[in-house]
Design a protein that fits this description.
With 340 residues, the protein is an alpha/beta fold. The protein has 9 helices and 16 strands. It is 26% helix and 24% strand. Bound molecules: NADP nicotinamide-adenine-dinucleotide phosphate (NAP). The site of NADP nicotinamide-adenine-dinucleotide phosphate has 30 residues, from strand 5, strand 6, strand 7, helix 5 and strand 11.
């Protein structure tokens, strides 16, 4: 079966790898049943197989929660597994949070007029849709809704839509934006408890084909520093949304990073210069360069863009300068996907 994988043209190998990832994601949602060995069936479709010693498997889930992949597969498939399988690992923590920003080389995610379209190219757009499909919820800040009127659905690849979560602390967003009325996916507005909401607003809005109310309003406690990202991830996890994707913008990703709730940070750098515009990450500084964070990372090529995949689960105290001094020579991402 692995021989078949290796006969495929690059695009077909990518499609097959994606089907494997969707199956692995289904297994995650079913809380990982015992048999987590994935291979191809007689019609070359990914399937769960009973393991015998001589069964060639493409992916398997180890007792410690990590996924492993075969080394006998095409390079494009191996790269996809290395990039996405860490998101599907079983973790003891109740949530796993990945954030992404697509920026110019001068760290802009939009122009000064708020135009954030086409910063990165088509391959990176497809990557965003892959992250949505593998996540339970996609989170964005209110300013992105106003600037982009985004759909946040999974369209460029096969897969489910994530629940769309918008941070709107004071309940100021107008509900005429597309994602509040398109009836394509569940949508949650997160407000602080001080937000002024009348009871009618809490109950009105479109209904999904499933009969569910499309827009729900969930409340998090007040805090002087805005919505506390840790409370956001805990609230979502308590409601079954455990794999979270923070899609922007810069303010939102920066706050989630500074609250140390991110496991992974993806930064796609596009070869363009924007000048004045909306900043990507905005973090407090450190006095000495030796105290700067040097998170383990891996690099992926996406068309003309380069994606940096950072493991930021160890990044804390970024603005205090008190983070542990890290050895700059040890900054490669330790393989979370084990080969066999
Ligand atoms: N290239 C990319 O990757 C990318 C991705 C997404 C968006 N964009 C672009 O980025 C721009 C918007 O980004 P942005 O950085 O200005 O804003 P943003 O992150 O989209 O939204 C910021 C707003 O969200 C709310 N918010 C976020 N985190 C919060 C928290 N922890 N507590 C309370 N409120 C919180 C606040 O709303 P209130 O103001 O109501 O307090 C805040 O002003 C747009 O132009 C969009 O096109 C680019």
């Amino acid at each position: 079966m692995l021989a078949y994988f290796n006969t495929l043209a690059s695009e077909d190998a990518e499609l097959l790898a994606w089907q494997f990832l969707l199956l692995a994601n289904d297994l995650r949602k079913q809380r990982y049943p015992n048999a987590c060995y994935l291979s191809l069936d007689a019609k070359n479709r990914p399937t769960v197989v009973q393991r015998k010693d001589d069964t060639p498997t493409c992916l398997w889930h180890e007792a410690d929660g990590h996924w492993c992949r075969s080394s006998q597969i095409p390079a494009v498939a191996a790269a996809m597994f290395d990039l996405y399988l860490p998101l599907l690992a079983r973790k003891d923590a109740p949530h796993y949070v990945v954030a992404h920003l697509g920026q110019s080389i001068d760290s802009r995610i939009a122009t000064s007029s708020g135009d954030g379209f086409f910063v990165t190219g088509e391959e990176n757009r497809r990557h965003l849709h892959c992250l949505r499909a593998l996540s339970d919820a996609v989170i964005i800040g209110g300013a992105t809704v106003i600037a982009d009127d985004p759909q946040l659905t999974t369209r460029a690849v096969a897969g489910d839509h994530a629940v769309r979560v918008v941070l709107d602390p004071r309940a100021q967003l107008d509900l005429s934006f597309g994602l509040f009325i398109d009836a394509q996916a569940r949508t949650v507005l997160l407000h602080q408890s001080s937000a002024k909401l009348d009871q009618r607003a809490m109950k009105s809005g479109p209904v999904l084909p499933s009969g569910e109310q499309q827009v729900e309003r969930w409340i998090v406690p007040n805090s002087d520093a805005g919505i506390n990202p840790e409370q956001v991830v805990n609230l979502l996890a308590s409601r079954g949304l455990r794999r979270l994707f923070v899609e922007g913008g810069g303010v939102t990703v920066s706050r989630f990073f500074e609250a140390a709730v991110l496991d992974r940070l993806h930064v796609a750098v596009a070869p363009l210069l924007v000048g004045e515009g909306t900043a990507a990450l905005q973090l407090g500084g450190v006095e000495k360069m030796i105290n700067a964070h040097r998170p383990p990372h891996a690099l992926y090529s996406m068309g003309n863009d380069v994606l940096w995949d950072f493991d930021v689960s160890g990044c804390q105290d970024v603005d205090s300068g008190s983070s542990a001094v890290q050895d700059p020579t040890k900054s490669c991402l330790a393989p979370t996907v084990r080969l066999k």
